[in-house]
Amino acid sequence: MNKPISANQEFQSDFLSVSEARIAISDLIRKTQELAKLKGAIDTIPLKESLGRIVAKDILSPIDVPANDNSAMDGFAFNSKELDANQDQIDLRTRGTIYAGQTDAPSAQAGECIKVMTGAMMPPNCDTVVPQEFTQSSSEGMITFAKGAVRPGENRRLRGEDLQAGKAAIQQGRILRAADIGLAASLGISKLMVYKKVKVAILSSGDELCSTEEQLQAGKIYDSNRFSLYALLDRLGFEIIDCGIVRDTPEELRKAFTSASQKADVIISSGGVSVGEADFTKQIMDELGEVGFWKIAMRPGRPMAFGSLKPISPKTTPTVFFGLPGNPVAVMVTFYQFVRNALLQLNGAVNPEIPLVSVQSAEAIRKKSGRTEFQRGVLFRDQEGKLLVKTTGSQGAGILRSMSEADCFIILHHDQGNIAPGDWVDVEIFDGLL
Ligand code: AMP
Ligand code: MG
């Protein structure tokens, strides 16, 4: 397998829409993943370490949940035949108590009930629980309650009603969250099979870049992109290989990309992909693989390179390559909009997309039809408690503060035009990003 996989070539000359770019990326990721899967890269790890990992095999429940019929309330369990009585008040004699975790409940005979605690096994011959608060004790050892207080079968949880033994509790491709980890524990599962983490190499290209350890020289800027990328990848749980800053020369770029592609499944670079400037990067990419230099109808984040590099020993699969634009906001936007899902998909996640939420805009927003805009937004409630979104103000692609102050993207779709106050817009909430 010496040939790299090609991203859809036909898109490369014109502007791509955001959705076309997503399709092309997803296609190439699928092909790469099929090759990578041949290696069956799976880790078996302790449950506690599995947050954010991706399930490699359906997790089947070894037991029924709940394991027994049990009471959903503190109250009195009895046989629902008692409700057939031809009177408005039901009187029952209490014959013992059963707590959660006990197994030796007495059986209720006609005219009897058993005091039960929430989670306690249903006593023999009982199918209904009247909650404690609906009952009164009429005399020593007797309770009474209105017949209408409870219907047959109420307040009883049935064995296997949450989950039946042998059924998938958590499906392959799921990105594990706290609730999944609790669920696995509730089934007595202590180890999980997850996909090995995808290895991602990051680098920044640009002669003007200075690392945070260096003294800032005239005309230079600090390299912030590698740090935002590192944090974005870290939060998603990928293995990160930091390849530092690379100068804009063919030799440096060749060296950096070759070395990164030997070690990593994916390379993410930032900078050096806009017209003119891309010349060197493009030349090296043509040498090392097939990478398309795209203009995407979006703002921010217009230029982007995407494709794959040929396998370089010791690796036997191609390396996926994302060349993100240099502007710090564009880096984050393109990461969220393209790279995140692609990496999760490559790592075996099923449906990793983030849901969009519709809210009303508090203000007018200028928007050109024919491109997708990702404005930085802040959600808030007005005096009546209505949820609204406003922009963070100036939306320049270099203003990283706008990302830092925002809590969501306001996504203005391709065909959408100007937004008036009160118009509904789609937002993507940052804290929803896993
Ligand atoms: P480029 O895409 O290389 O033309 O870069 C576009 C803008 O982003 C320029 O103003 C660069 O100085 C800036 N830039 C590029 N790389 C970085 C980086 N790693 N950190 C911060 N700013 C950057
Ligand atoms: Mg540059």
Could you give a short description of this structure?
This protein is 21% helix and 30% strand.
CATH homologous superfamily (4th level) name of the largest domain: MoaB/Mog-like domain
Strand order of the largest sheet: 1-19-21-22-18-14-17
Residue stretches low in confidence (pLDDT < 50, at least 5 long) are 1-6, 8-13
User: What fraction, in percent, of the residue positions are helical?
Assistant: 10-25%
User: Termini, distance in Å?
Assistant: 35 Å
CATH topology category name of the largest domain: Molybdenum Cofactor Biosythetic Enzyme, Chain A
- Class of secondary structure makeup: alpha/beta
Descriptive notes:
It is a single chain. The protein is of the alpha/beta class. It has four domains: 18-41 and 197-346, Molybdenum Cofactor Biosythetic Enzyme, Chain A (3-Layer(aba) Sandwich), CATH 3.40.980; 50-63 and 162-195, Molybdopterin biosynthesis moea protein, domain 2, CATH 3.90.105; 70-155, Molybdopterin biosynthesis moea protein, domain 3 (Molybdopterin biosynthesis moeA protein, domain 3); 357-429, MoeA, C-terminal, domain IV (Beta-clip, Beta Barrel). The protein has seven helices and 27 strands. It has helices at 18-37, 178-186, 225-236, 250-263, 278-288, 328-346, 400-405; strands at 15-16, 42-46, 59-60, 70-71, 75-78, 89-98, 112-116, 128-131, 136-137, 142-146, 156-157, 168-170, 191-195, 199-205, 209-210, 221-222, 239-246, 266-270, 289-296, 298-299, 303-309, 319-324, 357-361, 372-381, 387-391, 408-412, 424-429. The strands form seven sheets. It has a seven-stranded mixed sheet, with helices on both faces. Strands 8-5-7-6-10-9 form a six-stranded mixed sheet, with no helix packed on it. It has a five-stranded mixed beta barrel with strand order 23-25-24-26-27. The radius of gyration is 30 Å and the shape is elongated. The relative contact order is 0.13. Residues 1-6 and 8-13 have low confidence and may be disordered. Magnesium ion binds at residues 206, 271-272, 277, 326.
